[in-house]
Each structure stands twice: as structure tokens, then as C-alpha cells.
Amino acid sequence: MQRQNINNKIQRAFSQSAGQYDLHSSLHREIADKLFSQVIQESKPSALLDVGCGTGYLTGKLKDFFPQSLVIGLDFAQGMLEASRLKHENITWILADGNNLPFSKGRFDIVVSNLAYQWAEDLSHAFSEAKRVLASNGVFACTLFGYNTCHELFQSLDEASGGALQFLRLPDQGKVRKALADSGFKNPKVDCEHVKIEFKDMHELITWFKSIGAPHLPREGYLGAGAVSRAASIYREKFFYLQGVGATFEVIRVYAKE
Ligand SMILES: C[S@@+](CC[C@H](N)C(=O)[O-])C[C@H]1O[C@@H](n2cnc3c(N)ncnc32)[C@H](O)[C@@H]1O
Questions:
Q1: Among 39, 76, 216, 253, which is best to mutate for testing ligand 1, by the most ligand atoms less than 8 A from CB?
Q2: N or C: which end of the chain has fewer CB within 10 A?
Q3: What does the pLDDT look like over 108-148, one tens digit per residue?
Q4: Which parts of the chain sit beneath pLDDT 50?
């Protein structure tokens, strides 16, 4: 699939999910809360940017904590920004692509991003953009879902399709570290945590993906109804967890200085 098509699909899917995103994104909020705790250790910033702000949960918390600071939330999905605008009036919301930030060099003391960079086509370029807009000694703190995220789903679909499907997988820690080094961040800290969540079955997991705007696991190939049901059986047999099935989310955390 062409990269531009993938980006358009991601953008459209997030826009469409905006109305129900908050109902289904408690995992994202938990991850954002830890990022928030880390960032508020910094001395009072005059300007902050949240890249891929979604419905503005983290952006709003930052504005509440730093009321005197300029806080900007940026997202490329119009629907997400509309939802954000309804909730927070004193924040500047900008529709733009995080891969091409519409700001001058050194504009922000802090750039944050929660769970948005994992789909960047060129992570080094995306991180370079974050670095470019950071002021001297500014802080870049972000999280991304990593390669092992939902490995159970990928394995089940792969087995059910006899290897006929090819998925666009998320970046691993090595790729994230390399992209940070390529972008010129010195001594970035990168760590990783695995969170396992119970779903009733594979279908419930896929429905959840749709509700948070990640419906189109970008892929080459088609999986018929029979193969989908085979995949669900494989998933249940191999990844039984508590009363249902387990899905692993690998959360990569980055903290770097300009
Ligand atoms: C999983 S949501 C996370 C939203 C929010 N940060 C949160 O923690 O709830 C990912 C968000 O990143 C946005 N996004 C993904 N790629 C982007 C890009 N290249 N430029 C701007 N926004 C992007 C999506 O539109 C979506 O709102």
C-alpha cells in the first residue's frame, strides 16, 4: 500500500473516531498521566507543544498545570481537534502534520507527544522536526507503541492466512534509538514497558481498535471471513488470558534534551 494512502487512512480513521475516542482510551490516558508526571518536573516553560494531541487530554492537563504558558495542541485529524476545541478554549489548536511542524526553530521549551509517532513514515525526520522547534536545552518527551504491540493478533492472523498477509509493523526500540541519534538528540533515555490487557476475544480487540481510530492495521493482502474466524480460534487457543484473551501493548518512552 502506498505510504500516502496509509497516512490518509490513519488521518481519516482518527477523525472519524473522535466522538467516541474518550470513552475507549483509558489506556492512552494512563500512559499520558506518566508522561505528564515526568514533564511537570521541568521548570516553568514559556511554550509547550503536544504533537498528535488527539482530543487534548494531555494538552489540557499541561495547560492546567502551567496556566501562564503558551500551550499548543497539534493534530492532523480535523475531528480530533474539533473535539479538543469543545473542551479547552484557552489552548491553541493547530491542524498540521507532525512530520512538518509549522513553527520556527527554537519555539518551544517542551515538546510532548503521547502515542502518535508510531505511524511516522520516517521517524528520524519526525524527531528532527521536534528537535528543530525546541529551544536550547528544551525537553522532548514522548511515548510510542512499539513493535511487540498486539504481537498475539499479528501471529494469529499470520498463521490463519498461511503467511499471506503483510503488516506494517510498529518501530522497535532499536529503531527509536537510531532515529533519536539521527536527529541529533544527545544521550536520550529510552525505556519500555509491557502492558497486558484482557479482551473477551479477538473480535472485541478489533472492535476496540476501530473505536479508538486505529481500524486499518495497514496491510497488504485480503483475509476472508473464514480466515478471520480461524485467526480468532488460534488467538483463543494460544493467548488465553484470565477469562478471555490477552493483548500486549509495548509502550516505548523517550526523554531527550535538545
Ligand atoms: C492514539 S492517538 C493519541 C492521541 C492523544 N495524544 C492521546 O494520548 O490520547 C494518536 C493521535 O495522533 C495523531 N497523529 C498521528 N500521526 C500524526 C501526524 N503525522 N501528525 C499529526 N497528528 C498525528 C492522530 O490523528 C491521533 O489523534
A1: 76
A2: N
A3: 999 999 999 998 989 999 999 999 999 999 999 999 999 99
A4: none
Question: Does residue 57 have its Cβ closer than 6 Å to ligand 1?
Answer: yes
Distance CA 147, CA 149 (A): 5
- Find cell 508510531 and name the residue: 118
Cβ 193 vs Cβ 253: under 8 Å: yes
pLDDT single digits (tens) 75-105:
999 999 999 999 998 999 999 999 999 999 9
The SS3 assignment for 177 reads: helix
Determine whether the shortest distance from the Cβ of 250 to ligand 1 is under 6 A: no
Q: Which atom of ligand 1 is nearest to the CA of 18?
A: 27
| Domains of the chain, CATH where assigned | 3-148+168-195+250-257 (3.40.50.150)
Q: Is residue 32 lining ligand 1, measured as CB closer than 6 Å?
A: yes
145 lines ligand 1 (CB under 6 A): no
Three-class SS state of 90: coil
194 Cα to the center of ligand 1, angstroms: 20
3-state percent breakdown (helix, strand, coil) of the chain, nearest 5 = 45, 25, 30
Q: Ligand 1 centroid vs 238 CA: distance in angstroms? A: 32
Instruction: Write down the pLDDT at residue 218.
Output: 53
pTM of full prediction above 0.90: yes
